[in-house]
Amino acid sequence: MTTSRDPRPAAYLIILLGLGLAAAAALVPFYHVAYLLEPGILLAVLMPFLLYGLFIESLRGSWLLATGLLLLAANLVLVAFERYLRYDGYTDDLIYWVPTLAAVLVLPIAYRLGRRTDEADPSGTSSPG
C-alpha cells in the first residue's frame, strides 16, 4: 500500500502567500510620509486565491498544486511589475482585471482535467460521461 501526501496544506500555504501578495499590492505610497491600504486592489488581487480555495477538495493533488502555483506565479509577476517596477497609481487598471481573468481561465480547465474521480458519484459507482 502506497501512501500519498495530502496536498491541502500546500494549497493553504499558497492562499496565505496570495494574501501577502494582495497586501503588498494594496499598500500604496501616500506622498512620502505614509502608506494607504486600497481595499479594491486588495480584493482584486485576492480574488483568484479565494476562487482557488473553492477547488481544494475537488482537484487531485498534482493538479491542485500546479494550479495554485500557476496562479501565484502569474499574480507575483503582475504585482512585481505593476507595483514595484513601474508604479504609477495603477492607472492602466491591469491590477484590477488580470488576476481574476487568470483565475477564470485556469480554474475551469484544471477542474475539467484534474477533477477527483471519487467525487463523481457519492454512491461509489462511476457515472457515465
List strands and helices in order, with pairings.
Layout: H1 8-26, E1 27-30, E2 34-37, H2 39-53, H3 61-85, H4 94-114
Detailed description of the structure:
With 129 residues, the chain is mainly alpha-helical. It has four helices and two strands. It has helices spanning 8-26, 39-53, 61-85, 94-114, and strands spanning 27-30, 34-37. Strand 1 and strand 2 (34-37) form a beta hairpin.
Strand content: 5-15%
Q: Give the helix/strand class.
A: mainly alpha
What order do the SSEs take from the amino end to the carboxyl end, as H and E? Answer: HEEHHH
Coarse shape? elongated
Distance between the termini: 30 Å
Figure out the total of helices.
Answer: 4
Helical proportion? 55-70%
| Largest sheet properties | 2 strands, antiparallel
Number of strands: 2
Residue stretches low in confidence (pLDDT < 50, at least 5 long) are none
Strand order of the largest sheet: 1-2
**Mean of all residue-level pLDDT scores:** 89
Radius of gyration: 18 Å
